[in-house]
Specification:
By secondary structure, this protein is mostly beta strands. It is built from one helix and nine strands; from the N terminus they run ββαβββββββ. Strands 1, 2, 3, 4, 5, 6, 7, 8 and 9 form a nine-stranded antiparallel beta sheet that branches.
Length: 113
């Protein structure tokens, strides 16, 4: 077992994201997890992520801890609020945007391809 304390996790800028900070909590380098990694993303008002993952074999799960975000897929917008989760399958593209005036915090789990 490997415990990670939030106070020891260093924030990083995720590619194709804007007005947000990410914290990688678990993964190969952080705790030896080989099948997935887990992070926490803090989106400022107006923050989000550009269209991505349409060519990615990974599976993703988003769980909103605080606030709300809108995830856009080819089929339209999905509003995720506190307590909501979303599974995104392989090769499903998405963009994200925090349209509210509150910080949104999202727990992210992504499989390793």
């Amino acid at each position: 077992m490997i415990k990670r304390q939030i106070s020891e996790v260093k924030p990083y800028n995720a590619p194709l994201h804007f007005d947000m900070k990410a914290l990688k909590l678990h993964g190969l380098e952080e705790s030896g997890a080989t099948k997935f990694w887990m992070g926490m993303s803090h989106f400022l008002p107006g923050g989000g992520a550009e269209w991505a993952y349409e060519d990615s074999p990974t599976e993703k799960i988003y769980f909103v801890l605080e606030g709300e975000v809108v995830v856009t897929s080819k089929d339209g917008d999905i509003l995720l609020q506190k307590g909501d989760s979303l599974f995104i399958g392989p090769n499903e593209g998405r963009s994200m945007l925090n349209r509210s005036n509150q910080v949104a915090t999202v727990l992210v789990v992504i499989s390793n391809d």
